[in-house]
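Lab meeting, item 3. Inverse folding demo.
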């Protein structure tokens, strides 16, 4: 498959690693570490040097028990300067911005962002789809339920016997919203939202069901990096120490049909995914 973003089409002919740049004081594993334009831009460059194919800049945490909604103007003040600085330093880099707000998306696209990563799958801001369509952005549509402040909790983690089927149906609804907004299908990547409105058993079921999600016809991104499910399966409590488990989850996801991976620890992912891909492809 390919992925069309602003002004170019990316061939997804090897695993695509999207490095995480959280410009927040309260993200679950690295909140406050890169809370400033130069620190965040330096971190983004470091991830690109380690082999990331792009970086995902976020200005609002979705961690459980977060500090509450971030006003759009504050989120713009966090992410727009980082996008501007990264674009200045790395003119050819793929830059994604993680936001649910149309105003933030427009500001980020104006500064040179290529992709909008919406963890709400176009549920929360009716204007976001149009902003993405008008800006020609690539779009990541993630499965979640609820609002930003509770989507990473278990408040909406209610599934029947087949969580993967429910996630597939809700991602199909997100695709329909994108169609209605005028976003071309070739610009869309789907993310099953590991850990979002999902208990450990739900995340595991959804990962095992990736081949069924691939039937929706768009590339799949998995973001299990440092997540609760990795800690539960590995027995590692500290999120920043879940490197090996995160790599394991993503290599398995590659074998099951995912082609993009959102990761904090880029070098480990780059090397492991490239080796796994060489073997799987053969």
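The presenter then showed the designed sequence:
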């Amino acid at each position: 498959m390919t992925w069309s973003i602003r002004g170019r089409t990316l061939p997804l002919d090897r695993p695509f690693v999207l490095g995480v740049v959280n410009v927040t004081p309260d993200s679950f594993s690295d909140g406050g570490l890169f809370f400033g334009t130069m620190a965040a831009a330096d971190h983004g460059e470091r991830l690109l040097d380690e082999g990331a194919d792009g970086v995902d800049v976020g200005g609002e945490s979705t961690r459980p028990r977060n500090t509450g909604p971030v006003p759009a103007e504050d989120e713009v003040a966090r992410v727009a300067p980082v996008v501007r600085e990264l674009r200045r330093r790395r003119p050819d880099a793929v830059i994604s911005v993680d936001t649910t707000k149309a105003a933030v998306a427009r500001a980020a696209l104006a500064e040179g962002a290529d992709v909008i990563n919406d963890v709400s799958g176009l549920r929360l801001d009716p204007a976001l789809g149009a902003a993405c369509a008008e800006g020609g952005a690539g779009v990541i549509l993630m499965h979640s339920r609820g609002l930003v402040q509770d989507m990473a909790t278990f408040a909406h983690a209610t599934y029947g016997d087949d969580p993967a089927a429910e996630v597939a149906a809700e991602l199909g609804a997100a695709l329909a919203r994108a169609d209605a907004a005028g976003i071309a299908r070739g610009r869309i990547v789907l993310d099953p939202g590991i850990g979002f409105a999902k208990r450990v058993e739900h995340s595991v079921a959804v990962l095992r069901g990736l081949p069924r999600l691939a039937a929706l016809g768009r590339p799949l991104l998995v973001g299990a990096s440092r997540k609760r499910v990795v800690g539960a399966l590995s027995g590692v409590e500290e999120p920043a120490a879940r490197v090996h488990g995160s790599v394991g989850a993503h290599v398995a996801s590659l074998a099951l049909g995912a082609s993009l991976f959102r990761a904090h620890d880029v070098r480990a992912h780059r090397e492991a995914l490239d080796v796994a891909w060489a073997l799987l492809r053969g």
